[in-house]
Write a structure and sequence with these properties.
heterodimer; A: 11 helices; B: MetI-like fold; 2 domains; 16 helices; 6% strand
Chain lengths: 304, 387
């Protein structure tokens, strides 16, 4: 009698635990549906096709138009600038920490990079707007160029620095997980240290490095505070990084902070932009996870 | 020499490229750290002046007339010199100390933010006449810089000299309290289920992928979820620490789950085997033996989760936690703001005096994060499972 009661309560316990782990699924589903429903409502009011391909974004007017192409272009521009900095610097840092640094240096450097990773993005945003942007304006003046105070370049630079630790920490873990036997074999064949790294270690770790870079890319696209504080509000279809540009996240914040009615197309446009953001980052994360799984199965690593 | 069987004519070039490559790796980490140093230095330099605030010594008269129109309490020429926030406070002073009535006292009072900026050598907006008054006060020794108590003891204000961090600090505390109350139990339960009970089937793998994916979803989308579900669907109060805390809890959940799973995995299997050997059930083993052993690791992960949630701003802006909050919130359903949101608000204000306040707020938040991370490292070092 007593025993069965105990087993029942145990089963209940396990059931409660299982339900707790279902919360994570509920969250994803919740995000997807809360965005999807409002986005569908938006596309009933405004054309989906124009949203994807149109070049004029003018909310808050009588005849408002929602063509998001310049917004996507701005996001793309700032992301590219950020990754041009973050990928070489992140991978370089990872290589230094995993291959060159002595254990003592490593123990100093790793926490320092973690400090950089722990800085809130609102702080980076303030730094970009207060220090970097004016510096870029005066530097551009020196070269006889005209730069905006909320230029894409300033956001991109600071965002790049923000992403360096994202890329370097995962790349570092992956590089260190490459078996030492590969390094020793290469060195025994007379390759130099750097040749070993470039031709043996990095190619072996490539899936992990790709995964880290994609994670950095998805962070850059979804980054909000830096661009809200340092980028422009004006949708601007341009190739010049010294001009002001806006991004998907800036427009989402702008649409939801204002005093529009919740079911107006101005507010709902935030959700359609959010849907685009969700889909793109979801795809990037999926590829990133698949890459890291490839690396793990190749070298039979269970951590990471 | 040259007909040596192992001679490689390209060896010099290979060594040069090796040096170049090492130089590239060193340079990239050096540049990253140089940025960190420059950034910290720049923030500290900008924040430093906010530690002091200017006070002036003027005659203040307490009478019926000045209570009606507080700007009459001081001499006309000091009207732009003394803070309006301090003048507003005169009525309260008299309420507390009625014996002040009918007296004129010479006392130190808070100066206007423009005077403060002038004293600090920043950009200011004073008329020539006012500068002359300030200079005269300087000669008399009736103007001085004091430790800025207001910054830590008061809430937000539209007058920069009267603005402080306290309400944002309390808002952060309440919000993070809600976050941890929700995320910690849920995270630990999920980790225990996945690590100790779940069978390796499609559903389990789906949950795992889901958790990894949640960790990488842009934080602003959690704000959209909070807005659509917690505020519009459940009708919870907008701008409140309750909604903010719940939203952040969903974001912190993956961090806690991942670290808790790692901690559970590091508990040696011999503990579990010994439990089975003694006839314990699985739940008993997990509850009484595995979980207590894994707890330090779980706590470390949770502290890191708190540190992350503490700096998060974007989702809180979406759910309206950037309201102007002069008084500290007392419950989790009142409108509140949090530290990073306060920084964001101040950063957007035009008055020059807010720049140093923003930087000082940033230094405060960085110090708190540093403290949290130190606690996490300490926990990890102290309770590392040795086996």
């Amino acid at each position: 009698m007593k025993k069965s009661k105990k087993f029942n309560s145990e089963r209940l316990m396990v059931l409660v635990l299982a339900m707790a782990s279902a919360i994570s699924i509920l969250t994803t589903v919740g995000i997807l549906f809360s965005i999807l429903f409002q986005a569908i409502e938006f596309f009933q009011l405004k054309s989906f096709w124009y949203f994807i391909t149109g070049t004029e974004w003018s909310p808050g007017q009588m005849d408002s138009r929602f063509g998001a192409l310049p917004i996507f272009a701005g996001t793309f521009m700032i992301t590219i600038i950020a990754l041009t900095i973050a990928i070489p610097a992140g991978i370089g840092s990872a290589i230094y920490m995993s291959e060159y640094a002595s254990p003592r240096w490593r123990n100093i450097l790793k926490p320092l990079l973690e400090v950089l990773a722990g800085i809130p993005t609102v702080v980076y945003g303030f730094f970009a707007a207060l220090t970097i942007a004016p510096a870029i304006v005066s530097f551009a003046e020196l070269l006889g160029l005209d730069a905006a105070y909320n230029s894409a370049l300033a956001c991109g630079l600071v965002m790049g620095v923000m992403i360096i630790p994202v890329i370097s920490s995962l790349s570092d873990d992956v590089l260190r997980a490459v078996p030492d036997s590969q390094r020793n074999a290469s060195l025994a064949l007379g390759m130099t240290h750097s040749e070993t790294i470039r031709h043996i270690v990095v190619p072996s770790a490539m899936p992990g490095i790709i995964s880290a870079s994609l994670l950095g890319l998805s962070k850059a696209i979804g980054e909000t505070m830096i661009v809200v504080m340092a980028a422009g509000l004006r949708p601007n279809l341009s190739w010049n990084p010294l001009e002001d540009m806006t991004t998907v996240t800036v427009r989402i914040v702008d649409a939801l902070v204002g005093d529009h009615a919740f079911d107006s197309p101005d507010t709902l446009s935030a959700f359609s932009l959010g849907l685009v953001l969700f889909v793109i980052t979801l795809i990037l994360n999926m590829i990133s996870l698949a890459q890291i799984r490839k690396f793990k199965t190749r070298y039979k690593i269970s951590s990471l | 020499m040259n007909n040596h069987p192992f001679h490689d004519p390209g060896l010099k070039a290979r060594h040069r490229s090796a040096r170049l490559f090492k130089w590239y790796a060193t340079a990239s980490i050096a540049l990253t750290l140089a940025f960190l140093c420059f950034f910290l230095f720049d923030m500290g330099r900008t924040a430093f002046p906010a530690l002091w605030q200017t006070y002036v010594k003027v005659d203040v008269s307490y009478s019926e007339k000045t209570l009606r129109l507080t700007s009459k309490a001081i001499d006309r020429k000091y009207r732009k010199i003394v803070s309006r926030a301090w003048l507003r406070n005169i009525r309260r002073q008299v309420e507390v100390k009625p014996e002040l009535m009918g007296h004129t006292l010479s006392q130190w009072v808070l100066a206007d933010d423009q005077v403060d900026q002038y004293m600090k050598g920043h950009h200011y907006n004073l008329k020539v006449k006012q500068i002359a008054v300030v200079e005269a006060l300087k000669v008399e020794g009736a103007i001085e810089m004091r430790w800025n108590n207001i910054f830590f003891a008061r809430g937000d204000s539209k007058l920069p000299e009267n603005a402080g961090l306290l309400s944002a600090l309390i808002g952060s505390l309440l919000t993070l309290g809600v976050t941890m109350l929700v995320a910690f139990p849920l995270g630990v339960m999920t980790a225990v289920y996945l690590e100790e009970f779940a069978r390796d089937n499609t559903l389990t793998r789906f949950i795992e992928v889901n958790i990894n994916n949640l960790a990488a979803i842009p934080s602003i989308l959690f704000g959209l979820l909070g807005l659509a579900v917690f505020i519009n669907l459940f009708g919870l109060p907008r701008s409140s620490p309750l909604v903010g805390g719940l939203t952040l809890a969903l974001m912190t959940l993956p961090i806690i789950i991942v670290s808790a799973r790692a901690a559970l995995r590091s508990v040696p299997d011999s503990i579990r085997q010994a439990g089975y050997g003694l006839g314990l059930t699985r739940v008993q083993i997990v509850q009484d033996h595995v979980l207590p052993l894994a707890m330090p690791g779980i706590l470390t992960g949770s502290v890191i989760g708190v540190a992350q949630a503490m700096g998060e701003t974007a989702p809180l802006i979406i759910i309206g936690m950037i309201a102007f909050i002069p008084d500290s919130p007392t419950s989790i359903v009142e409108a509140a703001t949090v530290l990073p949101a306060q920084i964001f608000t101040w950063a957007g204000l035009p008055e020059r005096a807010y720049v140093e306040k923003t930087a000082a707020g940033i230094v405060v938040i960085l110090l708190i994060l540093f403290l949290l991370n130190t606690i996490a490292v300490y926990l990890r070092k102290k309770y590392e499972i040795k086996c």
